[in-house]
């Protein structure tokens, strides 16, 4: 007897030999067959889909789950359209807090506001409390005088980390804007977060994720650097799982700062743990390395100056340090996920990968370039030769595409967040969001952006890079599984695959592009168990 049969569904299997199915059988958390392969078999639970669309579970190949979960308890500044509105929100939150409590907000947009929050205004709004507002890109933050003082910036005792920027006005006074690695000066005041608090953040995020059809996510940086929240961050995921509150599968990217020398020239985590350690529900993935900043903050490392200010961005560290970090990780058996947005950072990353494979060959390792936002035509064949997985975020085009256009000019737009050209070159492109950076992380919204590539102002960026809705769905299913080296176990609806499935009220590959993100998620299954929407399903028969 099977555990579950889903019948009367319109299954988009993502399999070339059988693209459609109407019945799916599950046993022991795995798909055992479809249609005639399960005909005549009984099951403990039978769900009548009523003609709803069934797809493999969605995966997000690059997100920040803890950070997103924490942000759900912070002031959401994404809707602010004026500084008065922002300061008012800060003041109202501050008035409800103890006199020494931190006022923390997320996702303000300097492009919409016309600049960054004023330090003195934040002082007034906070009423003497520390105020910390995180930019939507996560590559910048604005703080008030209290935090500048605590961090040692006002009295000059702070040491700004390599790759960090403390903005100063014409008189040399800090404005309160901190970019890239300089944010570690604030982090040092609040980290590490308690594991209990991080586990609660994981649980909050998981509820949102399964409601959007997500069944697998890659957490892009834990344990160290400005992206991590605690040296024991993995323990928070374990705690949430132990409590039954981690309802999605998670791959964790340790930040490069967590690695240390082992034996000989090897680097890694204690006990020699490296990429692949764990199980199908929670495991260690690639090592995360930042090689530059972001386009929205003009800290991405570019070869030609940004429009207007003539800047070239910043590298995440000394080029030789970054090169050695990538080389050491490769030699030590790690998969590497290098954050590289500007084309200069991508050059550095590709050079390091080439040297690593030349000196310590590891065929099929599947290193990744996170974001791969500005890929020049001459860089494409290098990506292919090294079998690199590019991990772009199409949603950025909608949320901050107008800002990127202003920063780069028309000439470099064809390089932005490529998709079609990656596929035509033979690369796989996984779907991802970088949530909570920039905007929504809902997979169906990401699919729409892959198809449309339209900014919030209605400008189409690099129309030739558009893909159709089937390819967009493939990005969030089969290609995301490939990026994690798990294409043999998830991403398709066929025998042997994990029974991670999403039941939808319409077909995202058949509706108009503008309606893709309006398709509703009826239910989400992980290992054959309904983790979202189970109470609203129609059960044809259920065992007592």
Automatic annotation (TrEMBL):
What is the name of the protein in this document? Answer: Putative TIM-barrel fold metal-dependent hydrolase
Keywords on record: Hydrolase
User: Mind telling me which InterPro entries this protein's record contains?
Assistant: Amidohydro_3 (IPR013108), Metal-dep_hydrolase_composite (IPR011059), Metal_Hydrolase (IPR032466), YtcJ-like (IPR033932)
Residue ranges occupied by any Amidohydrolase domain in the UniProt entry:
46-532
Q: Which GO terms describe its molecular function?
A: hydrolase activity, acting on carbon-nitrogen (but not peptide) bonds
Known Pfam families for this protein?
Amidohydro_3
Please name the SUPFAM superfamilies in this protein's record.
Answer: Composite domain of metallo-dependent hydrolases, Metallo-dependent hydrolases
């Amino acid at each position: 007897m099977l555990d579950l049969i889903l019948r009367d569904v319109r299954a988009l299997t993502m399999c070339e030999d059988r693209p459609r199915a109407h019945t799916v059988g599950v046993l022991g958390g795995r798909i055992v067959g479809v249609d005639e392969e399960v005909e005549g078999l009984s099951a403990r639970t039978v769900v009548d889909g009523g003609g709803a669309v069934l797809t493999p579970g969605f995966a997000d190949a690059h997100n920040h789950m803890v950070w997103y979960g924490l942000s759900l308890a912070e002031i959401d500044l994404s809707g602010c359209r004026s500084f008065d509105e922002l300061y008012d929100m800060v003041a109202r939150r501050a008035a409800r807090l103890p006199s020494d409590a931190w006022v923390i907000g997320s996702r303000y947009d300097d492009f919409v506001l016309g600049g960054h929050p004023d330090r003195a205004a934040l002082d007034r709004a906070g009423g003497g409390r520390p105020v910390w507002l995180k930019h939507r890109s996560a590559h910048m933050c604005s703080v008030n005088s209290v935090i500048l003082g605590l961090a040692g910036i006002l009295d000059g005792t702070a040491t700004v980390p390599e790759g960090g920027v403390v903005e100063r006005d014409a008189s040399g006074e800090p404005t309160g804007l901190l970019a890239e690695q300089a944010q570690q000066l604030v982090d040092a005041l609040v980290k590490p977060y308690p594991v209990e608090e991080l586990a609660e953040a994981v649980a909050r995020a998981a509820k949102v994720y399964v409601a959007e059809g997500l069944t697998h996510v890659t957490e892009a940086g834990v344990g160290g650097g400005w992206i991590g929240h605690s040296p024991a961050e993995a323990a928070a995921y374990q705690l949430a799982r132990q409590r039954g509150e981690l309802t999605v599968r998670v791959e964790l990217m340790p930040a490069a700062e967590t690695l240390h020398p082992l034996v000989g020239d090897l680097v890694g985590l204690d006990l020699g743990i490296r990429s692949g350690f764990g199980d199908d529900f929670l495991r260690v993935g690639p090592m995360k390395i930042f090689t530059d900043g972001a386009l929205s903050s003009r800290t991405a490392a570019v070869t030609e100056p940004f429009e207007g200010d003539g800047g070239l961005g910043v590298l995440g560290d000394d080029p030789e340090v970054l090169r050695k970090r990538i080389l050491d990780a490769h030699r030590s058996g790690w998969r590497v996920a290098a954050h590289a947005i500007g084309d200069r950072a991508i050059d550095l990353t590709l050079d390091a990968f080439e040297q690593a494979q030349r000196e310590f060959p590891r065929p099929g390792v599947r290193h990744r370039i996170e974001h791969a936002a500005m890929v020049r035509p001459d860089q494409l064949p290098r990506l292919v030769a090294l079998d690199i997985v590019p991990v772009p975020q199409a949603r950025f085009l909608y949320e901050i595409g107008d800002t990127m256009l202003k920063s780069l000019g028309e000439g470099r737009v064809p390089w932005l967040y490529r998709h079609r050209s990656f596929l035509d070159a033979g690369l796989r492109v996984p779907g991802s969001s970088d949530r909570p950076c920039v905007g929504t992380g809902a997979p169906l919204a990401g699919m729409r952006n892959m198809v449309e590539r339209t900014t919030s102002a209605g400008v189409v960026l690099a129309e030739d890079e558009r893909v159709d809705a089937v390819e967009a769905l493939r990005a969030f299913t089969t290609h995301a599984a490939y990026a994690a080296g798990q294409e043999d176990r998830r991403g398709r609806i066929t025998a042997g695959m994990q029974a991670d499935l999403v039941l939808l009220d319409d077909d995202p590959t058949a509706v108009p592009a503008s309606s893709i993100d309006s398709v509703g998620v009826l239910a989400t299954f992980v290992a054959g168990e309904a983790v979202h929407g189970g109470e609203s399903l129609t059960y044809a028969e259920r065992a007592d």
